[in-house]
User: Fold this.
Amino acid sequence: MATQSLCFGLVGNPNAGKTTLFNALTGARQHVANYPGVTVEKRTGTITVSNRIIEIVDLPGAYTLSAHSLDEQVARDFLLQSSPDVLINVVDASNLSRNLLLTLQLLEFGVPMVVALNMGDLARQRGLAINHKQLAGELGVPVVPVVASRKEGVQELLAAALKAVKEDPPHQFAQVQYGQAIDSHLGELEAIVSRHGDLTAGQAPARWWAIKCLEEDRLIMDRVINDGAGGRQVLEVLRAARKQSTAEGKPTSPARLISQSRFHYAEEICRRVVNRHESGSRRWLDRLDHLAIHPLTGWPIMMMIFGAAYVFTFSTANGEILRWAGITGSPISWIESLFSLMAQGVEAVVPEGILRSLLVNGIINGVGGVLAFVPIIFLMFFVISLIDDSGYMARLAFLLHVPLRMFGLQGKSALAMAVSGGVAGGCAVPGIMATRTLSDPRERIATILVCPFLNCGAKLPVYAMLIAAFFQRAQGMVMLLLTLLSWTFALGGAWLLRKFVVRGEPAPLVLELPPYHRPTLQGALIQAWSRVQLYLRKAGTFILAASILLWVLMSFPRLGAQERAALAHNQGALAQAELAHSFAGRLGKTIQPITRPLGFEWRTNIALIGGVAAKEVVVSTLGTAYSLGDVEADRSASLSQRLAADPHWSPLKAFCLILFVMLYAPCVGTIAAIVQETRSWKWGVFSTIYSTGFAWIVAFVVFQGGRLLGLGG
Amino acid sequence: METLMESTPSVLMPLSDCRPGELVTVSGFSGDTEMQNRLEAVGIFKGRAFRVFRSSARSGAIVDSDDMRLALDRDVAGKILVRRSGHSLG
Assistant:
């Protein structure tokens, strides 16, 4: 029987191997509320060791406890609010002095702590030998060497952490001495905080609050000043401290003195515990890095890596790779056949009528349609996670920083855009999820909002049908043109957003290029699965509701019994009449004045409304609207012929429809992803309006311009 | 790391003006406090020595210390003031 439950918090610098250690500690027993390292929510895992239930929390990567970034703020809030029993500080042995800056700040927190000295193998390769026992002595906390990627030292780490819980009072922690000028003020502030506040009722000791005040940490200062009667005194001490802060005879700030003291202290520890000797084994990696970063070689390398990732993802998802292995079908088709089996099952049990239509057309086809994305999401994130773990992503971000900055985006935006359909056939859902690695919130929003402009796989059947009808002789050229246009619109759209909506200076790029290392399969699988879980949760709620709503729009109100009977002999005409009679049909007619300047008539409008469920629905709805009965997306050829022969249609109209489909409101699955990733309905609604407005303007300009140029109409 | 000392006394210059292979010591910052906080957080402190791994007027600079490699865009690299302390043969 397990007895008392404990909470261990995992903290460390970005790239210190925190997530790998978390995976090694918890394995599959983790609850992923969100992606680690970049977003707000935390990942937790529960394990049982020597009859103790231990909850392990993976905190976002942090360089400091000063909340410079959202990640750091989340990590700090957790420390302040959640009272972990033990902190496990993951330290990258190959980058000790920088990692120790955080360690020293954590020690000031006063919580029992164990240092997991990770990546010792990499340090050795770099010619660094670290005396971990001596390091433990210097810091006053246990230090356990681990190699998280090979699960070495994990049991020892847990044992040390459990032992640290029992020790009360905790170890004698090392304490940074900040020098005369700071120390006297620190003492005064400490006294004020402990006299007045109930701040020290939490885990952080008075000294920590005092240091943070001297560091002029806004959020902390506000809390200290607003807490009780000490506010004025605190400000007075800070004023005095500022006056007395000098370095090398020049005035500076207390914050600078504190960070300098930490830096020197960390360097001093390193001098004592790290033994350096020459190593030349990294030289070829240096050469590789030159190639990856240089514009001439970097771009081809990037194209190759993403080409390979892309081919792997989509050819596995649609079964091409599996066919080589002698397996027929594809993950996507398996999901589709599962849902069609479900549909058949319902049809066998439920009599024809509204209930069957709701279950089959509304729920099963609607939710099934978006669940077909699941294999793509899984595979895409599996590959992205491998690339990310290898250390390449940071190089990519640096390489693309200059060109994308012109449009108010950053290097990492390119990845999200490529996944979304920058290479035709992607999917905006994993693309939008991939924006989590963007650190600047404004650049991230701009990227998210333009991802749906790119040519995802679901738009391709629409293009294919219209190209077959009107641009038969230049198919390849039109596709290339559409790819270029989608990038132009996406980058232009981003530029507009950054100019008018999510304004702000471009975020300065200060990026650590972590050493290349071999990614772990387990990590990639866990990462990919966590994304799928998030998406499935949405599918069960938001997407389900939206599918039902669209079904209602397209099925009600129903035709009267007489009209149905009159058309019963012609299924196609009946379907068309029912559609025209429905809310969607009426809406399609109502909005005709809006879409007429784009060359669309009411039947096209209905198809576009249906396309919000999933873009390929545009094809089947057009099929119904042009009274072909139940046209499947893959039987589009006959619809093509029909449209080509229809006097209402012209190549110019078809091209405007293609552009409109490319740009207008994202599909339900994508809107769900936007809402989930921005944690706000506002951006989901905004995206729908922005995209549709953008699409309208583009289609309007092209249609009216084309008519003026005599290209038809 | 073998080094050749420069014969001329070193002058204060922005990191963005340095050439690959040069050894430099951070001597000051011309950016605002927020920028300096960010740089210190990743380990760029006054007094710390770096080797310039790559630098270009367009994309910025990449610097190495013994244990890490940091990429900085043009603007950031222009705000870090360094003194040349030699040239790496490696």
